[in-house]
Amino acid sequence: MHQTPHCSDFVDEPLPGTATQELGWLCIENDAGWGRDPFSGENFASEVGAAIERFAEERDLRVLLIRRPGRAAGARAAHRVYVARSAAGETALRRYEVDEYAQIPSLPVDDPAAGEPAEPIALVCTNGKRDVCCAVRGRPLAAALAAGYAEPVVWECSHTGGHRFAPVLIVLPTGYTYGRVTEVEAREVFDAARDGVVATVGLRGRSSTPPVAQVAEVAVRESVPAFGPDLVRVTVESGDVPKHGAATGLATVRHRDGRVWRVAVAADELEPRIASCGKSPSPARAWRITEIVTEPVAADRNCHQFESHFDHD
What we know:
Blueprint: E1 24-29, H1 46-57, E2 62-67, E3 79-85, E4 92-98, E5 116-117, E6 121-125, H2 132-146, E7 154-157, E8 168-172, E9 176-179, H3 183-194, E10 203-206, H4 211-223, E11 232-240, E12 247-255, E13 260-273, E14 282-295, H5 303-312
Parallel strand pairs: 1-2, 6-7
Antiparallel strand pairs: 1-3, 2-7, 3-4, 4-5, 6-8, 8-9, 9-10, 11-12, 12-13, 13-14
């Protein structure tokens, strides 16, 4: 009997350059059953959902629903709300609690001192209503990863994008996104994040940057010892990136210590494949590195110049 393939069965598409592009995140604890997206089910009264959606859009925040793996913690009287900023140099994660979802649009998220500072959290997409691969591959990973931490830092989450790379893991606040990770790899990724460095196993890219920058940054990080999330800035110098098909680009990766890499990238068209279970095949591409040039660090280079550049980017 012929078995219909799942979207995550196709593993020939390289991961770098595939992270969803988002500058910020609004993560709302919700233990109810989820619809295809945060506002399509019965998670919020219609007027409350509309107000939350406007609130998030005005602040460039992607709304995700989150819940503890296995819902083992049970329903809480209050709901946790996390607001994450993921742009390099601006990363921040603040935690709030609300008794009613209607309070969310009144949260003072524009005040950087409001809310409580939070340690990094790991989100694993488990939204089976959107794609079966996220449920089948994501839920076991989320449960196994959460078992290693006493505090609630691992969460199941609603649709993040990239079902075909399931299980998908996002670390906040940085927005580094991972795919096809095993339990061991996921723990390596999250432990590294908690220690202030970026692991490269399964790394798709940083959500605050476009594909060319994601590919360039992953390549540089894979070529040197692990370092922190905000020690580099990536600038796309040029890029011809149509929606589908072949693409090219050039990016400059600057490290705070003065090192600079010029990274040329290209993407080749792949055979169409299903991007989501039950859907028709759609175009896909594979990013690759065509050249990396490491610029020599001049002995008289003014490090303060780089500090100024980083502080004011």
